[in-house]
Amino acid sequence: MASTIWFTGIPGSGKTTLASILVKFFRAAGSKAELLDGDEIRSLVGATGFSREDRRRNVLSAAYTALLLNRNGISVAAAFVSPHAEARAEARRLIGRGFVEIFVDCPLAVCVERDPKGLYKKSMEGRIKDLTGVDDPYERPVSPDLVLRTDLETSEKSAGRVASYLKENGLL
Questions:
Q1: Are 10 and 111 a contacting pair, CB within 8 Å?
Q2: Which of 17, 59, 120, 170 could hold 112 in an S-S bridge, CB 3.0 to 4.6 Å?
Q3: Beta-bridge partners for 148
Q4: Would you state the torsion angle of the CA atoms of residues 161, 140, 89, 99, taken in this order, to the nearest 10 degrees?
Q5: CATH placement of domain 4-168
Q6: For residue 47, is pLDDT > 60?
Q7: Minimal CA–CA distance to 1: which of 69, 62, 58, 60?
Q8: Residue 76 and residue 154: Cα distance in Å, rounded?
Q9: pTM (global) more than 0.85
Q10: Which of the residues are catalytic?
Q11: Are 2 and 143 in contact (CB under 8 A)?
Q12: Helix (H) or strand (E) holding 4
């Protein structure tokens, strides 16, 4: 069964890294898989707003894309900040049974130190506004399917935990 593994967390927490590793796991197991990355999708569709509604539309567009891929036998590793619980719940309802929410939990200080895209630096310099976790709140998932502490374990260890979870639940 094709599924959507939805990685959510603040910028720099490790969502895209983990989703990329997971796609490799799927493919190595003989399954079709694709990565949907929030930054790439946002730039491709020209979504430039960061209002609550803009973010909701971005999440639902990605969820619908994931649903279409799932219907065609392709599993999806989706890496989206998706800061609002309501939008994540809508994504879960839209996709249905194959939706797995993974909370990539990493302290803000560690994400600021990592800052792979320079977002926190730009935020501190006032060059960008409404950065999730800094100017805009991130609503932590209340009951995700799995929580990964990327400040306490390697990306490979975290991805291995995801793969184990998927195997145990018949999704890999």
A1: yes
A2: 120
A3: 104
A4: -10
A5: 3.40.50.300
A6: no
A7: 69
A8: 22
A9: yes
A10: 82
A11: no
A12: strand 4-8
